[in-house]
Amino acid sequence: MSVATVILQLICPDRPGLVSELAGWVAANGGNIRHADHHTDAGAGVFLSRIEWELEGFGIPRQALPAAAQALADRLSGQAKLHFSDAWPKVAIFASKQSHCLVDLLWRVQSGELPMQVPLVIANHPDLEALCSGFGVRFVCIPSSRENKPEVERRILGLLEDNQIELAVLAKYMQVLSGEFLARFPDVINIHHSFLPAFKGAQPYQRAWDRGVKLIGATAHYVTEELDDGPIIEQTTVPVGHRDEVADLIRKGRDTERMALARALRLHLRRQVIVYRGRTAVFA
Amino acid sequence: MSVATVILQLICPDRPGLVSELAGWVAANGGNIRHADHHTDAGAGVFLSRIEWELEGFGIPRQALPAAAQALADRLSGQAKLHFSDAWPKVAIFASKQSHCLVDLLWRVQSGELPMQVPLVIANHPDLEALCSGFGVRFVCIPSSRENKPEVERRILGLLEDNQIELAVLAKYMQVLSGEFLARFPDVINIHHSFLPAFKGAQPYQRAWDRGVKLIGATAHYVTEELDDGPIIEQTTVPVGHRDEVADLIRKGRDTERMALARALRLHLRRQVIVYRGRTAVFA
Amino acid sequence: MSVATVILQLICPDRPGLVSELAGWVAANGGNIRHADHHTDAGAGVFLSRIEWELEGFGIPRQALPAAAQALADRLSGQAKLHFSDAWPKVAIFASKQSHCLVDLLWRVQSGELPMQVPLVIANHPDLEALCSGFGVRFVCIPSSRENKPEVERRILGLLEDNQIELAVLAKYMQVLSGEFLARFPDVINIHHSFLPAFKGAQPYQRAWDRGVKLIGATAHYVTEELDDGPIIEQTTVPVGHRDEVADLIRKGRDTERMALARALRLHLRRQVIVYRGRTAVFA
Amino acid sequence: MSVATVILQLICPDRPGLVSELAGWVAANGGNIRHADHHTDAGAGVFLSRIEWELEGFGIPRQALPAAAQALADRLSGQAKLHFSDAWPKVAIFASKQSHCLVDLLWRVQSGELPMQVPLVIANHPDLEALCSGFGVRFVCIPSSRENKPEVERRILGLLEDNQIELAVLAKYMQVLSGEFLARFPDVINIHHSFLPAFKGAQPYQRAWDRGVKLIGATAHYVTEELDDGPIIEQTTVPVGHRDEVADLIRKGRDTERMALARALRLHLRRQVIVYRGRTAVFA
Fold it and tell me: Which of C45, C94, C282, D96 makes a 20 to 30 Å CA pair with B44?
């Protein structure tokens, strides 16, 4: 687990020979591939690849690797993302009043399950401050209202920049981020408490109860400007029955929400998710 | 399994003493209760009960039981349904071209899993005739089109009446039954190939693929005039991934569709489902 | 949720009229039944019942109810257990070094999901002290070794008695309790990290990996003197694949362990579990 | 789906450059890779690979490919298996009296889900003859007893040879094949009606009931001489409860058995399973 690796994610137009070209490039530089996974979306004519190899002994020095990967991608008319497994990204967790996802994520970080750093938690209510301090994580409360939303988002963007945050995780933040925000900070994962596309928007558990469904779900997805419509990373469901009231759906939902969010976040952090055309390929 | 039982389903306004009243009535007539299950929907103020007791030795003769149950329900200002476990209802299965649900149901009937008789299969295409004859089941093909729909439904209603059919099961019939049809023959179970309320209507697998979901589902429900909106009996899901094309969703969906339909039908046939206020209580 | 209820669990020899007798007794005393569930194990000739009714307005005063329930059970040659939903039992959680189950349980208690009080956590290692103090729960470390086991168990029994503990939950305690201990304190729930009866005993994940299974599991069960052989309350599984090393099984197992334990504990605390003949009936 | 492909499965000692070497070999011969998946078992030092590319236009002619693959494997000190997706193997299904797995497999073959031919079904009881003839499949009944087992196995081996059978599927055959049989015909898949390694051997459902488990399972595995100990391909589970008698476990088990067997068989037929060191890698 402790061996540092390089992870290359690549998207490019499909054509014969791409696997060989990528693997050959790694091999030519002395890399020992640990994982190589590829997918062709035949309908879209798109080739997706995730290759992970050992950093030690690789012929191209670490600091030169991003440019080398870019050159490779250019040659294939594609886009590349390069990551190092030992460079844990800085992630900000956004929360509101509910603790279940936040405590789950903080515990997973503490136990080493999630390769990330959490410099701060941002919340629009003060309720979860003690929880964060128990885990030794900075807590910033920025109350938001319809009126002050632009100002709140500006302050948040400032915090994200100051702390070199790479990813924001909405752990039941219950606020919609504006298109302007997302244009400046696009890497955001959200957990929605329904099995999307069912019950988009507000109060999904109440609506699920009203409809009399026999399963409820949760969906972890990347955030886009259109509400609850971004690329889906992970979905889970849990059975419910006629004895379950809305409060029971909420309670059962908490477990499935935090599982879906934690799994999605781990997949993202291990660079196993590639987004393309409004959807994801998950190389797990 | 072979002991004949009486099954009483009752819905009435909630008030204290109902369980005692029902169980007392069974006991006073010498009944040995095998299953008793109740539910109160507190919000609606509705009490639901399902009681099953041994027929043999019960003080009220079989032929007098329906009237006695009705009298009991009247006393409680409710509605009762009475069933005998040894009276297997006659069920018509409706199909089209796809065989997966039909072969599954016919096999389950043959193997004794589903306590019902199937006097006939009704289809709007001739494809499944040989399958039915292999199971010794009468097959009636009634091609339907937009123009002849009223005439088709009249013919079907005639068949259902002639064969004393109690329940129709739409095993991928792919036709919408009219409000007039349902007014005359209301007991219909359908299998919809999505996790309702997501992807109501046509081509749910294509739309699921387009949305990039990570789970697909199936929903068995009672049919109402509004499409895919009837009371849900059973829902199932199955994981899908980026390697799955629409054809794979259809293939995987077949398994989850037939499981959901078979489970729902068994629950119905064992009189474990009570419908109220557009939803179901499933006493399983 | 906040209405106080009385819960009666009863086991007795099966005979006709029992449901009526029980429900009649509740009704005769003015009780409004909220849940009534029964089961007959025909092979064993045993009748099991769980009835829950509103405490307020019930004709028998609270302090007289235990004796009344005992008299009822005596009349039926059975055993009764009586509980009040507003009397949250005192539960001791036993832990060792692993935090996942402990943090999960403490969070659920804090969030109100588990109707219990936790006066203390007992551990044989000091690692989890800070976690407990973060939740405001007393932590007692009693290191154990093969030599001092009788002394350790005596000290623990003293603590349980002093704190009026009703139930012990082994949240990855990793120690086997002796028969003497269990004779004096029999109500103990354990989480075992395998799908019992597979992989009883030590290192189940390593052995699961060695065998090449495709699912791993967790089992929450009551503890008996024979290791990993007590009545099972809840079992869960999670898929694993060839890319999962033992460390991955351990990581994935943590999620399924804590879910199984939390569910089992909630079922126990809501008095939905009846143990008989080495097995459980779970009235959920 | 209809494009013919070549599938290469390779096992060899791990070393850097293998992915490049394999993909380079395919590319050098003009192959268009559709799927490439690899796995390194670091503990065992073993590299596993499955590569699938389009047959049309590949530089090495079809009839020369097996030798070319062998030469490649020799160069890597490994073993290779080469398959063509349009060459559907001949598979014999073994059955006894129970129909659920057999009807499921025959239906899946008929519907095109399973890329295989079924020249014959071999059974030790005559019960399923009509079922087979309904699907147009030859049925051979060879009654077996303790005394005539060697003779029965000789006859079966003759049938397998005469019909050029590549794989035998034990669809509830309920007979143990001898080591001699397996030495001569090693490719056999079995479905065992438990979640192995729990409840190896006879009557797993009865023993599962006796133990009071809350989940039952099924395991599809390759057959080895030691009973129920071969490499596992697929496992499934289904919840059971206290209301389920042994007959219910058997009924519920039928669904999970046939699903596990069908999934395992499809994985095998699509050459997604590689066996090594008593376990499987499943490239799905």
Answer: C282
